[in-house]
Amino acid sequence: MATVKATGIKPETTPIEIRDRRNQAPPGYSQPSKSDVSVIQYDSALESIIGSKPTHALLLSSAEGTGNAFFHRGCVYNPSRNELWTTSAPLAATDPSRPPTILMSKVTITASPRGDTLTAEWAKLRPPPVMPMPANGCLAANGILWCSQGTMHPGTGGVFHMPAGQPPKAVATTYYGRDFNSPHSAAVSGDGVWFTDPCCGHELDFRSPPQLPPSVYWYDQTAREVRAMADGFVRPTGIAVDEALSTLYVADAGGVKADGSLDLVQPRSIYAFDIVKRGDAIFLANKRLFALARRGSPIHLMCENGNVWAACGDGIEIWNNGGSLMGLIKVAGGVQSFCRGPDNTMFLCADQRLWRLQFSTTQRNASPELL
After folding, report:
1. pLDDT by residue (tens digit) across 294-303?
2. Which of 187, 182, 237, 239 is nearest to 207 (CA)?
3. What CATH number is given to the structural domain containing 152?
4. Is the entire prediction scored with pTM above 0.90?
């Protein structure tokens, strides 16, 4: 497909509002920001994360064109190739008798010599045939680990490793012969991979009926074994492991209906588990509610410096390791996925819009992504 090039993109100063957790009113009766991107700070410690003068830039938008949500999931930055990858929401086929499809986007961002403007080159690609309907991914060993939601055909879907410039290779595609439902997100940890498996594909009519309960799985690379590690979820989506590899966080977006509306009494929460060893085997123990999303449901998670970042209906919510909301990066329309970029930047997928944030601090220690 053709490449689109956007030039002369100018970053803007991101407004910061300091608020009180108790009454949700800004001190001094200040008016809420009218910017599409702003920061709401509940804890002064947030400044050590984002700095006092962050900026944001709108890299690409389909809002004024097709209106398609090309920047929905994925959001994986490969530093070795300076490539940002995203995946679209399911796109309806022109022929109503055909199933929807998902497109992948490869975006390259460069700064001008003076650093005052940005250029974004955007190429839309069809996913490899063996990896249909990709959702989220994460960095892994000279490439990206993708979750493929599959189609109506048996034997499709699973977790795939796609080395840079090479076709994807299957990592886990079934649980003892039963197809996964719709693998959504993965997190690499030591010698294995954690991943979530909700039933999103069937709910959106592009995947056959579920054969397994919505669960969290662990793929042990050494034993080449897939183990079911936790169930009892409505719609497990985001997943992340802390830097110490001792705590696993899982988002349950059970409150999101198939049409995108919210059921406020269903789970919209982040749960924490202890990663423990019993003999030579890994287990998850001590499940506990870590946080309830401020707005919407948590979809995508990241751990960094002990804090948990969550893509939610209001943007990116940032929680400390004690489960207190430090603040949020407020984005109009919410955020579906995000990732760290180079030089203390962050990329945000907001369906029709792709944003780049520049933080004015250097503190960073993201959870490892190795395979």
Report:
1. 999 999 999 9
2. 182
3. 2.120.10.30
4. yes
